[in-house]
Amino acid sequence: MEPAAATTATSPSARRCSEAWEEHERVLRRVEELEVEVVRLRSEKKAAERAAAALTAELEADHGAAETAATEAMLMIERLQREKSAAMIEAREFRWVAGIRAARERELHDQLAEACALAASYQAILRAHGIDDDPDAGGDKAKGVVIEEASTLSSSSPPAAAKQAFEDKYAVDVRLTTKPVDEERVTEVLCARVEALEADSAAVRREVAAMGRAERPRLEVPARRRCRDDDAAEKQQSFLVLNVFKVLVLLPNIMGNETVCICGKVNKRESHLSFGSSVFAFPPD
């Protein structure tokens, strides 16, 4: 009876030991599986981190490219604005110089026409007084300035204003005889006057060009200042409808349980918000 009783007594403990061993083995296998799973998850995590780093680098590169493009666009816009201002100033200067040149050319043309008419009238007066046109007839005669009184002139005398202007600047030397006036001398005097007028015209052109170069920097500074003022005014006048919605969203939190009557109107000309008895006006877009 004793061996059987011992076997019966030890069998439950043996079963418990075997069950504990099996449980231990299951736990070990589970631990190994978890370790394998952890290793796999760590590798996946590292791969995801590498992919995220690559995407971040690509995103930063895209942001850098976008910022560079925006900067280049702004620089190009500023350069185009400067070129536009310079072109407008230059066109204004060209129009001014062209107007002065046209007026000066008209004045020179009128003066030349008056000189030609005056020379022709003097020649007609000399012929009317019986002075021959023979250029070879001569002699040692005294020279003087032809000055005729208005009372002794015939009906073919030149205009008084043209005559006075011509006599103030130039005088024709002729022989005070009945012999003809030297036409070559008159021609030389007229040519000399034309050359003097051309020299005056060239001097005026140089002076106008110098004035244009001097005026250009003075006109360019106000043009740039005006461009900057226009940009600042546009920025101040900019109005976003998003601000209205922010006010509408934040107003209930500020007013609490107070009844609020909101009447919002946003258009291109004016914007008003009425809160109870208060009216707020916003700048136009």
Automatic annotation (TrEMBL):
<dbReference type="GO" id="GO:0080115">
    <property type="term" value="F:myosin XI tail binding"/>
</dbReference>
<keyword id="KW-0812">Transmembrane</keyword>
<keyword id="KW-0175">Coiled coil</keyword>
<feature type="coiled-coil region">
    <location>
        <begin position="24"/>
        <end position="58"/>
    </location>
</feature>
<protein>
    <recommendedName>
        <fullName>GTD-binding domain-containing protein</fullName>
    </recommendedName>
</protein>
<dbReference type="GO" id="GO:0016020">
    <property type="term" value="C:membrane"/>
</dbReference>
<feature type="domain" description="GTD-binding">
    <location>
        <begin position="36"/>
        <end position="126"/>
    </location>
</feature>
<dbReference type="Pfam" id="PF04576">
    <property type="entry name" value="Zein-binding"/>
</dbReference>
<keyword id="KW-1133">Transmembrane helix</keyword>
<keyword id="KW-0472">Membrane</keyword>
<dbReference type="InterPro" id="IPR007656">
    <property type="entry name" value="GTD-bd"/>
</dbReference>
